[in-house]
Amino acid sequence: MKTLLKLEELAEMLLALFVFAHLPYAWWVLPATFLLPDLSMLGYLAGPRVGAVSYNLAHHKALAVALGVSGWVLGQPLLVLAGTVLLFHSAFDRLLGYGLKYATGFKDTHLGGMGVSQSGLPAAS
């Protein structure tokens, strides 16, 4: 992934941390909830199409923003927390190269194939 895109994802993670710092929750709540969006991978038990839909829904930044803004407007810190966790998690995933999934398989993402370098050769470990 290009450096500029990685910087954008890092900026989104920092924004999520900034928002979280202003919420009425202890710091341990963010790491404790960090992996919750990955429960959406259970959709892959029903096949790659259902898995891709469930994964993409739980990792879509528009959902994160919608939850966060809705919580702010409604005065519901729990919704702001949910949006913040989703934004932080999704940006972190993208920073590592895990993109939104295609229905063809878990490793097929909008950022390219996972485990395959830009040259098309298997990525070095």
What's the total number of strands? Answer: 3
Indicate the structural class: mainly alpha
Radius of gyration: 15 Å
Average pLDDT, all residues:
89
Described by the principal axes of the CA atoms, the overall outline is: globular
Low-confidence stretches: none
Oligomeric assembly? single chain
Query: How many helices in DSSP terms?
Result: 5
* Helical residue percent band: 40-55%
Strand content: 5-15%
Biggest sheet: strands side by side, in what order?
A: 1-2-3
Order of helices and strands: HHHHHEEE
Distance between the termini: 16 Å
Biggest beta sheet summary = 3 strands, antiparallel
Transmembrane segments: 12-30, 63-88
Protein name: DUF4260 family protein
Keywords: Membrane, Transmembrane, Transmembrane helix
Describe this entry's structure for a reader.
- This is DUF4260 family protein.
- Keywords: Membrane, Transmembrane, Transmembrane helix.
- By secondary structure, the protein is mainly α.
- It has helices spanning 3-21, 29-33, 48-58, 61-74, 77-95, and strands at 101-102, 105-109, 112-113.
- Strands 1-2-3 form a three-stranded antiparallel beta sheet, with helices on one face.
- β1 (101-102) and β2 form a beta hairpin.
- α1 packs antiparallel against α5 (77-95) and α4 runs antiparallel to α5.
- The longest helix is centred in the N-terminal third of the chain and has 19 residues, at 3-21.
- The chain is globular and about 40 Å long.
